[in-house]
Amino acid sequence: EDQVTQSPEALRLQEGESSSLNCSYTVSGLRGLFWYRQDPGKGPEFLFTLYSAGEEKEKERLKATLTKKESFLHITAPKPEDSATYLCAVLGAGGTSYGKLTFGQGTILTVHP
Amino acid sequence: GAVVSQHPSRVICKSGTSVKIECRSLDFQATTMFWYRQFPKQSLMLMATSNEGSKATYEQGVEKDKFLINHASLTLSTLTVTSAHPEDSSFYICSAALLGLRTDTQYFGPGTRLTVL
Q1: Mean pLDDT confidence for B26-46
Q2: Which of A20, B52, B112, B114 is the most buried (most CB within 10 A)?
Q3: Which B residues 25-54 touch A at CB under 8 Å?
């Protein structure tokens, strides 16, 4: 069974204070690892897809990296508008041909001005 | 990124009535659509997966007769909550994906808040 664990559960940062969110996973044949941002009362917003170890992707202040066991979402010089819940999910190759994602519980990020 | 819409965004209904929620992929044809529900401060829980023109696949514990899913086209899926009760009150979110090699990303709709009185 695929599993995803995110840490920390909550993270409070001062504006400009860089940090990283962790997503540890176990999966039978990784087809993709996904990062989403979710604001309260809204659906998840797609950020990144990573497919293989060593891959990195960047978007504004966010950078996602991937190893064989975990993924990091690095936030550089965050701003208050980066406050949200960040969700990590994996898509495994084992037996599920229809794309079922396994989600972590999320990290609640709060950036104070 | 791709755009997925949901309608309505919020619905309040009386116990015993049925509610239909629409999910549309606006700028791409989705091979597969997914329906989730989310309780406060919890992650998304997959309810069912649907492919255009075929019956939906429901997750264990989800009543298929209560949560009817129709996937009429490559851009439209509907979830009908039949005979809704207060315990069905939740945040329902759909997603759409074009599944295939390196195109497995799910794009989510904005969600529908259902309140059953």
Answers
A1: 90
A2: B112
A3: 32, 34, 42-44, 46, 49, 51
